[in-house]
Amino acid sequence: MADFVLVHGGWIGAWCWCRVRPLLLAAGHRVFTPTLSGLGQRAHLLNPDVDLSTHIQDVVAVIESEELQRVVLVGQSYAGMVITGVADRLPECLSQLVYLDAFVPSDGQSLADLVGPQMMASLKEAAKSVGDGWRVPPLPPQACGVSEAQDVRWMARRMGFHPLKTMLEPLHLTKQNCTVPKSFIYCDDPAMGFFEGFVEKAEVENWNLYKLATGHTAMVTAPAELTRILLTIAD
């Protein structure tokens, strides 16, 4: 039995795992799906001071308060930033670090560094236009690889603003090298366009690398296939 901690990406919440969670539970594992501060059912906590450190602490608190050990820690998209920080804080509690079509930062990098100046300028302008300068409105679900009309409507109803500061704060790592085994799951149909470099990193550093023929939001568009990969990683 493994303890899965599934961390959602930007603009969404723990609700995004509702198709994967029961499949992992049915396989006999425990599953924890924290919602990051200011998002999902914790949207009431959204404020200008919520940053990357806040989100890292959100997940650290779950692992510590539940006294979890040998955690399979999964981060989707933006949450690659978060799980990297958690692994730096609690490596002894983790058995696997899984990047689900996610950003893989190095020490001193922010999400803004990884998405590039053009994309970041667009996000900042959106925040300035409709988010009081500090809340970034969500991308449309279609931009995240969701095409089924019912899924698009379901996600659009639930997606909300994301705190800009989480994208600007650099990640500061205290350890020289994270020895937790790592996997990267690359969603390539259609590819989002930000993650090819991390696939190369995974290949060079001999991570477990999986490719999933679905869009960026695999937990919505391909839950069964994603679950099979997660169970393989946990074995």
Termini Cα gap: 9 Å
* Beta strand count: 8
Rg, Å, rounded: 16 Å
Helix and strand composition category = alpha/beta
**pLDDT averaged over residues:** 97
What sort of overall outline do the alpha carbons produce when their principal axes are compared?
Answer: globular
- Roughly how much helix do the residues carry, as a percent range? 25-40%
Query: Which strand order spans the largest sheet, edge to edge or round the barrel?
Result: 2-1-3-4-7-8
Taking the sheet with the most strands, its summary is: 6 strands, parallel
CATH class: Alpha Beta
Give the helix tally: 10
The CATH superfamily title: Alpha/Beta hydrolase fold, catalytic domain
Order of helices and strands: EHEHEHEHHEHEHEHEHH
Strand fraction: 15-25%
Fill in the CATH topology: Rossmann fold
Q: How many domain modules?
A: 1
Can you tell me about this structure?
38% of the residues lie in helices and 15% in strands. It is of the alpha/beta class. The chain has a single domain, classed as Alpha/Beta hydrolase fold, catalytic domain (Rossmann fold, 3-Layer(aba) Sandwich), CATH 3.40.50.1820. Helix 2 packs across helix 3. The strands form two sheets. A six-stranded parallel sheet has the order 2-1-3-4-7-8, sandwiched between helices.
